[in-house]
TrEMBL record, chain A:
It comes from Arachis hypogaea. This is Rab-GAP TBC domain-containing protein. InterPro entries: Rab-GAP-TBC_dom, Rab-GAP_TBC_sf, Rab_GAP_TBC_domain. Pfam families: RabGAP-TBC. The lineage of its organism: Eukaryota, Viridiplantae, Streptophyta, Embryophyta, Tracheophyta. One of its GO terms (molecular function) is GTPase activator activity. Residues 113-304 form the Rab-GAP TBC domain.
TrEMBL record, chain B:
Pfam families: Ras. It is a lipid-anchor. Keywords: GTP-binding, Lipoprotein, Membrane, Nucleotide-binding, Prenylation, Protein transport, Transport. This is Ras-related protein RHN1. It is found in: Endosome membrane; Prevacuolar compartment membrane. Its main location: membrane. The keyword Ribonucleoprotein does not apply. GO terms for molecular function: GTP binding; GTPase activity. Belongs to the small GTPase superfamily. Rab family. GO terms for biological process: protein transport; vacuolar transport. It comes from the Eukaryota. GO terms for cellular component: endosome membrane. NCBIfam families: small_GTP.
Amino acid sequence: MYGAKGKIDLAFEYQSQVAVLRPSIHSRRANLTVKFQDLYGFTVEGNVDDVNVMNEVREKVRQQGRVWWALEASKGANWYLHTVIGQGNALKSSLKFSALANALTLKKIIRKGIPPVLRPKVWFSLSGAAKKKSTVPDSYYDDLTKAVEGKVTPATRQIDHDLPRTFPGHPWLDTPEGHAALRRVLVVYSFRDSDVGYCQGLNYVAALLLLVMKTEEEAFWMLAVLLENVLVSDCYTNNLSGCHVEQRVFKDLLSKKCPRIASHLESLEFDVSLVTTEWFLCLFSKSLPSETTLRVWDVIFYEGAQVMFNVALAIFKMKEDELLLTHHVGEVINILQRTTHHLFDPDDLLTVAFDKIGSMTTNTISKQRKKQEPEVMKELDERIRRLESFKMEDK
Amino acid sequence: MATIGHNNLNAKLVLLGDMGAGKSSLVLRFVKGQFLEFQESTIGAAFFSQTLAVNDATVKFEIWDTAGQERYHSLAPMYYRGAAAAIIVYDITTPDSFTRAKKWVQELQKQGNPNMVMALAGNKADLEDKRQVTADEARVYAEENGLFFMETSAKTAANVNDIFYEIAKRLPRAQPAQNPAGMVLVDRPAEGSRAAASCCS
Ligand SMILES: Nc1nc2c(ncn2[C@@H]2O[C@H](COP(=O)(O)OP(=O)(O)OP(=O)(O)O)[C@@H](O)[C@H]2O)c(=O)[nH]1
Ligand SMILES: [Mg+2]
């Protein structure tokens, strides 16, 4: 009826439809740019090397699937659904050894990637979305969908405006059916949390959640758990204060973890937030190729939002040598854009993110956030006051 | 056309305006000569660069195309800080976007670089039958506030290059000491008396 329970069986259709791409000898010679569809149906442009990488990634995804099936065979079906990792790995000592071993195995294989077919089930359970959903009546989403139908608010107007502007050209998202599903998820959420309402950026996040989860209702709960439990609060409300906090924490981390890059960029008067704000607000969905984005999300939903710092730092780290040679803001941005758009192999990024950046515990990150919060609030307040005073002057 | 190597200028330019007014579309038209019926909504901001030859100088624009939704307002200072020029965009079919444009002008006047060249763009001029903001109203406002005004259409390309070109001409040039003798310099518009050109009529 509302399509809430209707399956969106698309992401995986693509996988079977898209034949393995074989760059022709001609394109190889000419080093032409080719357009192709990735695992989730997005059209990407790349050269022959990129096509080869994509094919390797497809193969790695299949192999990783075999790893998951093998574990299932040895540990029992759905073993991972009962393995809960404590915040910041602070596992209770009372936990049985086998549970501890499972948690570590799970952390490791999640960092290696969740196979796309298992993603909906694993995300839904490990992120806490299933638990969140279980606290309300089963019909919650359908009821809310019905209740808000036909209502017009500033949020719904902005959502309507953004529907055709969310991954335009995608073979499912950019269809009447896709628009309708995305609309319901965003509109229902805007009524669930009127402080958030609708914030641009959520359209991309929700769209990707729909593609992965394949049912609207599960996409909705994933969005809810993401905004309410996984990310820092107020990332998308009012003046995006949470986002400002994350940006400041990130700048501190960059100076600590990549001091040479940080001081070089400072000498160019380049504020990294110019670029990283979008990464954080869209959880990389507008910058990284889809499978790479979702590999990042695999880890976010299990380990937490601080993973975004690892990933963002890794992008800078990977290009350290090039970045140190830049003389101009434009060059820096071009390097970062080129890098993110071509990160077709998620492992290239995640290896750096976890092996080279070093671990940052949830604890240290929360301390950093606490430290920045009052300063962000002060700055935002001052800004508002200044703007108000202009209005007074003009009267 | 020959360009004189030592007369290059880098200029940071920022686009501000309501969500959906057509900021990204204007930039895309100017930088790539394209128009998309459905342009992705901008989050944070997007960066582009484009070089223009003006008289015997070249101006390299570093363009920040910002996000229009109201709550992104708190990010804007990061993008307009140090900008040499700004294009404030509204959509001629939505009065609210014009109101929003005026707020941006006010903010830039108080907080922006005092020598900033400001342009007001009434975009979507191709949608004449849906017009809700008259060109006269906008022109009067622009004159009063020392901006120059053009109506543009990213769709038909009308006035798009022109608005960037006009900005390039008005940018304060480098210190005279760095310029070769006899260089024709475009007049630096004096504060407060920036003549408003009504280039669109
Ligand atoms: N008819 C017409 N449509 C336009 C014109 N310029 C932009 N549009 C359309 O208006 C919509 C919004 O344009 P954008 O360029 O994305 O607007 P924006 O100001 O960048 O919006 P945000 O990124 O959300 O702040 C798109 O669907 C464009 O195709 C124009 O000159 N004429
Ligand atoms: Mg835009």
